Amino acid sequence: MSVTREMFDDVMVPNYNPAAFIPVKGEGSRVWDQAGREYVDFAGGIAVNCLGHCHPAMVNALTEQGQKLWHLSNVLTNEPAIRLAKKLTDATFADRVYFANSGAEANEAALKLARRWALEKHGEDKQQIIAFQKGFHGRTFFTVTVGGQAAYSDGFGPKPGAIEHVEFNDLSSLEAVMSAKTCAVMIEPLQGEGGVVPGDKAFLKGVRELCDKHQALLIFDEVQTGFGRTGTLYAYEQSGVTPDILSTAKALGGGFPIGAMLTTADIAAHLKPGTHGSTYGGNPLACAVSEAVMDVVNTPDVLNGVKQREQLFRDALHAINEKYHVFSEVRGQGLLLGAALNDTYKGKSREFLLAAAEHGLMVLIAGADVVRFTPSLIIPEHDIAEGMQRFEQAVAQVVASHA
Fold first, then answer.
1. How sure is the predictor about 95, in pLDDT bands with cuts at 50, 70 and 90?
2. Is 103 labeled as ligand-binding?
3. Which of 87, 27, 23 is nearest to 54 (CA)?
4. Is 383 annotated as a binding residue?
5. pTM score > 0.85 for this model?
6. Separation CA 83–CA 291 (nearest Å)
7. All structural domains of the chain
8. Catalytic annotation, residues
9. How many helical (H) and strand (E) elements, i.e. helices and strands, does the chain have?
10. Among 200, 148, 203, 150, which Cα is nearest to 175's?
């Protein structure tokens, strides 16, 4: 069967509007489309492909496990899941892991656990969940309601209750709504979809202190920031703050769907058998691939390399901006970077994304005002240089079109 982009419109629900080209092959930080055209990948599947495309460690893990055992259900356990959980708990604050299939599912589990913990420990009055405007936590009805973007949560009928939103990086707005009724505060240490906005260290520390004061749980959504993306295994390690619950996905599987919720033994005890579950969560195939990814990512070489590559990206973007004056700032951490457009180009991030694709480069946006970069954590330096050359051509094209 010959597949065309037009077929997408005939057979798919129209909730996505993908690019005109269809990628068919990837290797490292390069991708080829149906016509054989090559692209440099600065998008990384939205911070997922942390080892690029078809990394040998992942291919080997998938092939080996694919010949042993794929799926069992959680009536039984399996070796890859136990090994991966052990590696995650050894490397983090957590004692216990719950496996799911996506970031939204990991966050759903975190929120349900927080509510159950509060009910059993403090009674039914302690229900309030506080999150932040422009935050993003997934697309299930609970997580999309906790996320602070009405455009994603409106229009589906009555929403789950007892959820409030406050200003990110503004401690006083959080303080104003917190009380003994607050069961949890959910936050991205660096807002991804909301524009690549880092949480100030003092602010994150203040959030932790308010949670302690009101006996509320602190949930860090590290779906996008986690698994090496910021130069440590998880971003919380650089914040001076330890959460009570952490969600992780995206890069966790390097491209194979898997999510996880990490927490302490005391809090985990409130999800007794039967309280929550997932048919595919913790399946041997996903866990074997994720373990292989972790063995590569959680090493000084790769984590230190993230910080070196961040500098190369910043230097190249600075040089482009000196020439074309399109960005007000470049913000973010590690290889989760956002080039914020200045007043002249506000609202035009999609134009930069489309122009980049024309010049053989895949980038992302974070809202209408930010061009986002989330490449492989091990992207070769020559691919960064080549990609930035192509990005400069794209920027020049956009600038010329508005001259």
1. very high
2. yes
3. 27
4. no
5. yes
6. 8
7. 5-55+300-401 (3.90.1150.10), 57-297 (3.40.640.10)
8. 136, 221, 250
9. 15, 17
10. 203
